[in-house]
Amino acid sequence: MGKGADAIFIFFIAGALCSLIDKIFWPGSLDYIYLKGFFTFDLKDVYLTTCEVLLVVLAIKYREAWHQVKLRQEARDFARYVYTNVCREKVQKIPGQGHEYE
Predict the structure, then answer these.
(1) 90 domain-assigned
(2) Hey, which end of the chain has fewer CB within 10 Å, N or C?
(3) pTM score
(4) Number of structural domains, the chain?
(5) Residue 66 CA to chain centroid, in angstroms?
(6) Residue-wise over 86-100: b if at least 16 C-beta within 10 A, else e?
């Protein structure tokens, strides 16, 4: 899935960052693109909709591969990876001091 999965990830992160910026600078989403007779939207909506469309296209294209995926094992492997590489604090003792530092 290579480039397609990368594009999905990029569009999702871009949409999430746009949403975060909206929440920081305004009390909500500021829709600034108006299509007369249709609807109003912003760049965040474009990014997230593109992400959704690409996800559906790749899911249909690689539907045979999805049948071979064992989701429970994948979820366990991902949780183990997050725990060992992200969450676990590496604490070291500095000689001569009674403190523990990260």
Answers:
(1) yes
(2) C
(3) 0.57
(4) 1
(5) 20
(6) eeeeeeeeeeeeeee
